[in-house]
Amino acid sequence: MFFTIPTILTWTRIVAIPLIVGVYYSNTMPVATQNLVATVMFVVFALTDWLDGYLARKLNQTSSFGAFLDPVADKFLVCAALLVLVHMQRADVFVALIIIGREIAISALREWMAQIGATRSVAVHMLGKLKTTAQMVAIPFLLYNGKLFGLIDTSIWGTWLIWIAAILTVWSMVYYLQKALPEIRARVK
User: Fold this and answer.
1) What span, in angstroms and rounded, lies between the C-alpha atoms of 50 and 65?
2) Domain positions in the chain
């Protein structure tokens, strides 16, 4: 199931990374246009996360490879966008370190828990979903970096939301570690 429609959609999130980064390195458009193009690209590619899951279930094309690739693609896209935002001084490096560090730590924890047959203890929780939602709204706001509809200052809202995402990131990491702690204690003894 390497080339199913859902898996191809997942691959597009990985392919999107150099495209979004490239928008900011091209000197062919004004900054406001770069911001708009990168924002639209991020939103479109981020929506493929929902679409690939929906299609995988609807078309009965779920696979272990797709289940592996989907969160990897999400993390790559978010981490790349955060690095662009830090480079452009639209996001604090501390926020990026918190979010990226948590993604690495929880991915490693989930891999280890899978190896010992305890994946249920680190199953996706509502805190993780809230964290992802805050990130997926904050990042396009920060990429856009202007007034939306002449009313919403996306820079201010994006900054607040990315810090909220960072707090939820730490909170969800603590939650997952607490859930895994009994298994960890049992294996360390």
Assistant:
1) 17
2) 1-89, 92-189
